[in-house]
Amino acid sequence: MREWQVKRRERTRQLIELGGLVAKANLVELTGDDRAVMLGMLVEAAATLRGDRRETQLQLWRRRGQRAFAHEPNARPSEPFSTIDIYPSSKEFGS
Predict the structure, then answer these.
(1) Of 15, 48, 80, 91, which has the fewest Cβ atoms less than 10 A away?
(2) What's residue 57's pLDDT?
(3) How far is Cα 21 from Cα 15, in angstroms, rounded to an integer?
(4) What's residue 1's pLDDT?
(5) Could you tell me the residue ranges of all domains in the chain?
(6) Which residue ranges in the chain fall short of pLDDT 70?
């Protein structure tokens, strides 16, 4: 297989996996499949990462994501994550 074909295949796999994350977060249903809303959310997240709270926000999002991945084996595909699984406790906000 040629190098460009391997890179294309790797890129395709990455895009499919990223789309899977959007689905796991239940964003398609929660936004009514409004792609402008989803892009706006991602642009907002990118802006947050450019700010001075970057490391704090990355840590918070990483913990939420880890909890969501940990919850995955117990959830049925039709069953979205509950707010208990995804949203932080007051400890995560430093309260």
Answers:
(1) 91
(2) 97
(3) 10
(4) 84
(5) 1-50, 53-95
(6) 73-95
- Rounded to whole angstroms, the Cα distance separating 5 from 22 reads 26
91 touches 64 (CB < 8 A) = no
- Check residue 78 and give its pLDDT: 44
Cα distance between residue 81 and residue 77, in whole Å: 10
Instruction: Answer for the pair 28, 19: CB distance below 8 angstroms, yes or no.
Output: no
Evaluate whether 62 touches 45 at the Cβ level (below 8 Å): no
Alpha carbon distances (Å) from 39 to 26, 27, 67, 89, 93: 15, 11, 24, 27, 25
